[in-house]
Design brief:
The complex is a heterodimer of chains A (213) and B (462). Chain A is an alpha/beta fold. Chain A is 35% helix and 28% strand. The chains are: A alpha/beta (213), B mainly alpha (462). Bound molecules: adenosine-5'-diphosphate and magnesium ion.
Chain lengths: 213, 462
């Protein structure tokens, strides 16, 4: 059950964002830190199959990515920095739709989604339309859908941005629970808080990933 | 995971979003109201269909085919705008593109929802048609004939519009302005091509060439030897012509071509899943560069808070108009195209060459910038800019008008100023006003762009 990056490079136009990133992502929490604009989100997008590298490979369970993409997606949770949420659906309807896309059974997903939203303090709003959600509520909703289906690979981009410390702690709790059996890769500005519990801390800078500590 | 659960979920989610939107109910209400103006019996009051300058005798079958023809020609772009700019415009693509779900399954589900909305429109029109016919019909009242003829002509057209919408959503370059333009071209072709192809006899292949399928049944319904078929407004001659719509529908290969378009629509929707390409995530810095230019950089040069007041005071109306002009003309091709349009203005018939060329360029530039500034969420941001949004919108209109006049300068020197000045001023001001109002109402550039394109076509062709 391992995810591995080998010499990943990604540039936009002439701008080389990632030049040579190699890392393995074992079971447990991997923190991605580094200055803003360093390429943390870019790396996370590559790992979450939302983008393709210009060169290098991503390997899932010994198989390189285009071939292993479907297998990885089947057990992937991804919380991007922004999602075009369907404003006119309720959180529950949105969650069930995402569950169908992930291939989860609706009844299992419904119960699990409600449980996750409860842990994140969103249960009272589960049947409200998303258009009434605040920025912090949206962030938690995006995290919640990623956790559905107990993914083996969980990629989270700034899941605690815009959250108060209480909600951030709730997110951290769920993340650590998942990290017991899955590779969790997360970017966060609250790196210090989680560093002691992480299996590795990768600092992204100058197009490379360096282990810290 | 089965394909059918994904399809059902995509279908259900989109349908729910339509049902919850006031815009759907408005559309379903507008359809029958509009139907009243789709069957006009006097000149200039609405849409009339004329053969050899004469209106047809309004029998039940004629009611059905008349409505069908109007839907398949003039209503087609309206429903396309609705689907594309409507409640399902925003999809959580960041998530569905990284899910294991089959793109074909998603495309079919979304097509199903759009198709259901189209059938809703057709049901609303059917009810209106039945009512109008009941009041106005000549001869026996035959509801079955009205419905059958309406659905045979208009049903496949509306399904095809839904399919094209899904296909255009699947291809990155067709998600934006180019897709709108391509649809507009398709729509014009569907009206123009069949009237040429119709001369070549009624075969399955010839009839498949027309998505709308509106011209063939009209031609074949008319008495032999008829000439000049008009849909829209035209000057009418007294007297009535008798049409036989069943002969029109029964023309060789026509019914088969309508069935063909139903199947083709399904195939196009499935193809959309097959050719689907993910979105390219634009860098935030790029996407908001124009906003920085308009607000932050002017407001905070060097981000020194102390200089804020001085800059704010220095912001006058003229710099604001200039900034709007720069933003409207910000496309990389704009200068080149503007020079081209100005050069066309040197040609003889300015009203039909230079003026439409300049207007076409402005339609794209204006709707793009208006759509950006009026996008949901950004309105709040621009509200923090030093100007009231209403003043910014006025500046937009002035900027669009000035750009229109600027492109017309070479033409003024050749054709004399007054005539050119008047046309450039009126088209520029009208297009700018329409662009900002439509973009504000729809919170996106789609509606403004297509509406303006249709207006542009009417201007060019008249
Ligand atoms: N789609 C894109 N097009 C152009 N540039 C991009 C794109 N995505 C990211 N970038 C650029 O790549 C750099 C890294 O971005 P990102 O990965 O979001 O940084 P981080 O998440 O570490 O703050 C930034 O300079 C950003 O402008
Ligand atoms: Mg980031």
């Amino acid at each position: 059950m391992t995810l591995e990056a080998r010499s990943l490079a990604r540039s936009f136009g002439r701008k080389k964002v990632l030049e040579d990133v190699s890392a393995t992502f074992p079971i447990g929490l991997t923190l991605l830190t580094g200055p803003s604009g360093a390429g943390k989100s870019t790396l996370l997008r590559l790992l979450a199959t939302a983008d393709k590298p210009n060169s290098g490979e991503i390997i899932w369970q010994g198989q390189p990515l285009p071939a292993a993409r479907r297998a990885l997606r089947q057990t992937l949770g991804y919380a991007p920095q922004a999602v075009d949420l369907p404003e006119d659906l309720t959180a529950r309807e949105f969650g069930l739709h995402i569950a169908s896309l992930k291939g989860l059974s609706r009844s299992d997903a419904d119960a699990q989604f409600a449980g996750i939203l409860e842990a994140l303090g969103l249960l009272p709003d589960i049947d409200r339309r998303i258009q009434g959600y605040s920025g912090g509520m949206r962030r938690r909703l995006i995290t919640a859908q990623a956790l559905m289906g107990d993914p083996q690979v969980l990629t989270l981009d700034e899941p605690t941005a815009e959250l108060d410390s209480e909600s951030a702690a709730a997110v951290h709790g769920l993340v650590m629970e998942r990290a017991a059996t899955a590779s969790v890769i997360m970017t966060t500005h609250l790196g210090e808080q989680l560093a002691p519990q992480a299996v590795q801390n990768l600092r992204i800078a100058d197009g490379k990933a360096q282990p810290v500590g | 995971m089965t394909v059918s659960t994904v399809t059902a979920s995509a279908f259900g989610a989109d349908l729910l979003r339509y049902r919850r939107s006031a815009s759907l109910w408005l559309l379903l209400l507008c359809a029958p109201v509009a139907a009243r103006y789709m069957i006009s019996e006097t000149e200039g009051e609405g849409i009339s269909i004329a053969v050899g300058g004469q209106l047809p005798v309004l029998t039940s079958p004629v009611f059905g085919i008349w409505l069908g023809i109007v839907v398949s020609t003039l209503v087609m772009p309206v429903v396309f705008i609705y689907l594309r700019a409507g409640p399902t415009r925003r999809q959580p693509w960041q998530l569905d593109e990284t899910s294991p779900a089959s793109r074909i399954a998603i495309a079919l589900g979304r097509f199903g929802a759009d198709a259901a909305i189209m059938m809703g429109v057709l049901i609303a029109l059917s009810l209106a048609g039945l009512f109008l016919a009941w009041m106005k019909v000549t001869g026996p009242y035959q509801p079955g004939h009205i419905l059958l003829l309406l659905w045979v002509v208009a049903g496949p057209t509306l399904l095809a519009v839904a399919a094209i919408r899904i296909l255009f959503d699947a291809v990155p370059i067709l998600r934006g302005a180019l897709g709108d333009f391509l649809f507009f071209m398709l729509w014009m072709a569907s009206i123009i091509v069949p009237s040429i192809a119709a001369e070549n006899g009624s075969t399955f292949a010839n009839n498949m060439a027309s998505v709308g399928g509106a011209i063939r049944p009209l031609m074949e319904s008319a008495p032999p030897g008829s000439e000049s078929f008009a849909i829209g407004t035209s000057s009418l001659a007294p007297g009535r012509v008798e049409l036989d719509p069943w002969a029109g529908i029964g023309a060789q290969g026509y019914l088969a071509s309508r069935a063909g378009w139903v199947l083709l629509s399904l195939a196009i929707a499935a193809l959309a899943g097959l050719v689907y390409r993910p979105h390219k995530s634009k860098a935030r810095t790029q996407r908001f560069a124009w906003l920085d230019r308009l607000t932050l950089r002017r407001l905070l040069p060097g981000a020194a808070p102390s200089s804020q007041h001085a800059t704010r005071a220095g912001l006058g109306i003229v710099p604001l108009v200039l900034a709007e002009m720069r933003l409207i003309a910000s496309g990389s091709l704009f200068p080149l195209l503007a020079v081209g349009a100005a050069a066309i203005g040197l040609a003889d018939d300015y009203r039909h060459a230079g003026s439409p060329a300049a207007l076409l360029l402005l339609v794209f530039a204006l709707s793009a910038h208006a759509g950006r500034t009026e996008a949901r969420g950004l309105v709040a941001l621009t509200a923090t800019a030093p100007f009231h949004p209403l003043i910014r919108r006025m500046a937009f209109i002035v900027a669009g008008t000035v750009l229109s006049l600027a492109i017309a300068v070479p033409a003024m020197m050749v054709h004399g100023p007054l005539h050119v000045l008047e046309l450039a001023f009126l088209t520029g001001a009208a297009a700018s006003l329409a662009a900002i109002v439509l973009a504000w109402a729809a919170r996106s550039p789609f509606v403004a762009r297509i509406t303006l394109l249709i207006g542009w076509y009417a201007y060019m062709a008249s």
